[in-house]
Amino acid sequence: MKNLKNLICLLILFVAFTASAQNVGIGTDNPISKLDVRGNIALNNNKLLLKGGGEPNYYLQYLGGSYDGPKLNGNATVVLSTNGSLGGDDLVLKNDRVGINCDPSKGLLHVNGFYSSDEGGFAYYANGGQGGAGGSTDISIYASNRINATEFNARSDARLKQIIGISDASEDLAKIMAIEITDYTMIDQIQGGRKIKKLIAQQVEMVYPEAVSQSADVIPDIYTLAQADNGFIALHAELEVGDHVKIFVPGNDFLTTVTAVSPDGFTVDRDLNGEVFVYGREVSDSRSVDYDAISMLNVSATQEQQRLIEQLQSENDELKTKVAELSLQAKKIDEVESQLSTIMSALESGGIIIDWQALQK
Known about the structure:
about 350 residues, alpha+beta, 6-stranded antiparallel β-barrel, 4-stranded mixed β-sheet, about 25% helix
């Protein structure tokens, strides 16, 4: 009985009914919705059904096991939307496909729209042509690491382009010969210590600047452990106030802003304490190489090499023909000289001496 009285008291204290609106409030006496709860709601591993008690296919539920997280389930579609700049449904899961700002219809992942930022005008394997130095670039997908696929298809229809003309293959060959292939390893050990044989953007930039872009990125130019105390990191680095620095702490990494610099270290705008790993600075001129542009340069240079090879083959065939003709003439001369020698011998054996030198005069 005592428990029942306590329950009644709790209901009186925390549940209020507004007769005019027929709203229910828990923790408030002024509910503004049919159910207005001021506090946490615990489902205790149960489902929150979203389409009525008799429809089990639309719900929110905690998903345990290896996932250990919430699950939002729809019968065929789940939509996550905000009032952000995209102006549409930000994330759509439909028919086993994923759409970003769209109803997915053109692939397992369908991205519609872009984020415009100053990435040095680099086109990134996008639909447009080669970008120039500086300016804003519209980026739909950005990856900080590898993209693994069996095939990449770049849209290249002539109706998308303003054709300027055929590339100068001889110049392309000269550029290919000037580009240096370099062996190197990555400073960031997380990417592995294997030896890589590729290009260096700064070297390519001197030969073929159209294939190199500049963009904002973080470089591992500090890459060391340090101690932090209330945001002060005891590490001397070539930093300035306003620089952005990437820092790793257990289970997380982030960019933070340098607010003060001293000979003993620098202060950031986060309350960091203990051991941290300072990765490096964010720079505005990190170089990237358009390997697709290098590949096309190589195609043009290979075509020029083939033309040179065919030209040499033709010239070689002509030389062989001339050599054969000269060889035939030399053979005929040898035959004439042999016949003359025979005649001279016959004449001399008959007592007739011929002064060939006198005859030649």
